[in-house]
TrEMBL record:
Disordered as annotated region, ranges: 316-336
Species for this entry: Streptomyces cyaneogriseus subsp. noncyanogenus
NCBIfam families in alphabetical order: BGL
Phylogenetic classification of the source organism: Bacteria, Bacillati, Actinomycetota, Actinomycetes, Kitasatosporales
Residues that span the membrane, as ranges: none
GO cellular component: cytosol
Residues of the signal peptide: none
Annotated catalytic residues: E179 (proton donor), E375 (nucleophile)
Highest taxon above the source species: Bacteria
Protein name: Beta-glucosidase
Keyword Hydrolase annotated: yes
InterPro entries according to UniProt: GH, GH_1_N_CS, Glyco_hydro_1, Glyco_hydro_1_AS, Glyco_hydro_1_beta-glucosidase
Length: 480
């Protein structure tokens, strides 16, 4: 039996078909979200193992102890990735698996897993795109101060070199950090991610030390390289315009842009922190703990900027009661949805046109650095049939619209060289536990059965069409 999914719109197809044959099509995952095997082969606890045990911290009390059992099913997952025609796999390395406790020599068993993963990918013609840190800090380093402590940056550089010593002969693409905003602000200011802190000062220190860790690792990797490397960092980015044309909203949008956008890009790509951000933080009695030489280290040249995009917001300078200042007299900065737009299963507004705008802004404001969309995807309320197949036309349309948005940005001059869907597999989605499903491939967590969804088949056929520069139907078969 075969069926077909609704094709992408003609406009989407026309834009996507303009992508070059060497454009990268990939999928992304992270270690804690899929690997499981939390206490096997010498792995020690990460801050997420600890956070998952905090009552009420994670939906349903879920943990990553088993997740997708990728640690034991890795060859099957790589075969699936290759069967979907994806040429690049962005995965992360588990720091507490490779270097238990965050100090000392590498753990041979833990590092051996990634050694086998890289060989399996290369044997199937898939390029490994390695991310060194996707939020799973060893708990022992958290106990010693975590990212608000400067020493953690130096421990990260040591860890990066250990991984490179083993894999640097085969891995070309290295991403130092995934989304420092989430690790620092969601984890240390808003308290909704591990380690669950609620201190602006700690969050700002964590941002700076994550940046420093990035720069130190870039320098170590360049010095140790046995072959040309492509070094990157991936940031969670979006656009943030004023909710109205009022002076309060325009000023709030400037503050949001400084804290949520330029705070992460300016030090790495311009070698400085935005002065308006420094002034804003001073109003809260908070300083960025910069020492002599830090910014030169942080601005060590990279080869690729990773762009993770999910949604954009409007910014208001008034609270829900119309006040422009809080109880302490500080200005209000409040993010609002745009309204009237389609939303994902998580209620996130679908705004592919803002991905085009974002890529063009990055190209204009930070010229000369190639970009790859290292994460983009959507959670929807998947409904499998009796065979586990998910006819996710909503996710398929989402991917088509966003891939077309990338192509449109390229057509206007943005140097974007690849698109990696989040995520290859349904997985543990942090504080959301297993409730949200982002995967191209459905995972039945009871049996660990993998079933490609309609969106996976669409992406497979679209990638093939672009590479071969033929056909333009955008239609996919059910497959088997």
């Amino acid at each position: 039996m075969t069926t077909t999914a609704p094709p992408a719109t003609a406009r989407h197809d026309a834009l996507i078909d303009r992508l070059p044959p060497d454009f990268r099509f990939g999928a992304a995952t992270s270690a804690y979200q899929i690997e499981g095997a939390a206490a096997e082969d010498g792995r020690t606890a990460s801050i997420w193992d600890t956070f998952c045990r905090v009552p009420g911290a994670v939906h349903n009390g879920d943990t990553g102890d088993t997740a997708c059992d990728h640690y034991h099913r890795m060859p099957e997952d790589v075969a699936l990735l290759a069967a979907l025609g994806l040429d690049t796999y962005r995965f992360s390395v588990s720091w507490p698996r490779v270097q238990p406790g965050g100090r000392g020599p590498a753990n041979p068993a833990g590092l051996g897993f990634y050694d086998r993963l890289v060989d399996e990918l290369l044997a199937r013609g898939v390029t490994p795109w390695l991310t060194l840190y996707h939020w799973d800090l060893p708990q022992e380093l958290q106990d010693a101060g975590g990212w608000p402590a400067r020493d953690t940056a130096h421990r990260f550089a040591d860890y990066a070199e250990l991984v490179h010593d083993r894999l640097g002969d085969r891995v070309t693409h290295w991403t130092t950090l995934n989304e420092p905003f989430c690790a620092a602000i969601l984890g240390h200011v808003e308290g909704v991610h591990a380690p669950g802190g609620r201190s602006l000062a700690d969050g700002v220190r964590a941002v700076h030390h994550l940046h420093l860790a990035h720069g130190l690792a870039v320098r170590r990797l360049r010095a140790a390289a046995r072959r040309p490397l492509d070094l990157a960092v991936s940031h969670l980015l979006g656009t943030s315009g004023p909710a109205t044309d009022s002076a309060a909203d325009r000023e709030a949008a400037r503050r949001a842009d400084a804290f949520g956008f330029r705070f992460y890009l300016d030090p790495i790509l311009r070698g400085r922190y935005p002065q308006d951000l420094v002034d804003d933080l001073a109003e809260y009695g908070v300083e960025i703990p910069v020492r002599d030489g830090d910014l030169e280290t942080i601005a060590a040249p990279i080869d690729t900027l990773g762009v993770n995009y999910y949604r954009s917001m409007r910014t208001s300078g008034t609270d829900e009661h119309g006040a422009t200042a809080d109880a302490d007299g500080r200005p209000v900065t409040r993010n609002l949805p745009h309204g009237g737009l389609p939303v994902t299963g998580l209620g996130w507004e679908v705004m592919p046109h803002d991905l085009t705008a974002l890529l063009l802004r990055l190209s204009h404001d930070y010229p000369g650095t190639p970009m790859v969309v290292t994460e983009n995807g959507a959670a929807y309320d998947d409904h499998p049939d009796a065979h586990g197949f998910v006819d996710d036309t909503d996710r398929t349309a989402y991917l088509a619209a966003h891939l077309a948005a990338v192509a449109e940005a390229r057509a206007h001059g943005a140097d974007v060289r690849g698109y990696f869907a989040w995520s290859l597999l349904d997985n543990f989605e942090w504080a959301g536990g297993y409730a949200a499903r982002f995967g191209l491939v459905r995972v039945d967590y009871a049996t660990q059965t993998r079933t490609p969804k309609r969106s996976a088949l669409w992406l497979r056929d679209t990638a093939h069409r672009v590479r071969t520069a033929g056909g333009a139907s955008g239609r996919v078969g059910r497959g088997t």
